[in-house]
Amino acid sequence: MKVVLITGGSRGIGAATAKKLAQQGYAVAINYKSNHAAAQQVKEDILKAGGKAQYFQADISQEQQVVDLFQVVQAHFGPVTHLVNNAGVLAQQMRVEEMNAERINWMLMQNVTPYFICAREAIKQMRQSSLAKQCAIVNVSSAASYLGGANEYVDYAASKGAIDSFTKGLSLELAAEGIRVNGVRPGCIYTDIHSDGGEPNRVDRVADLLPLKRGGTSKEVANAIAWLLSCESSYATGTFIDLAGGK
Ligand code: NAP
Question: Which of 72, 140, 204, 235 is the residue whose CA sits 20 to 30 A from 244?
Answer without folding.
Answer: 235
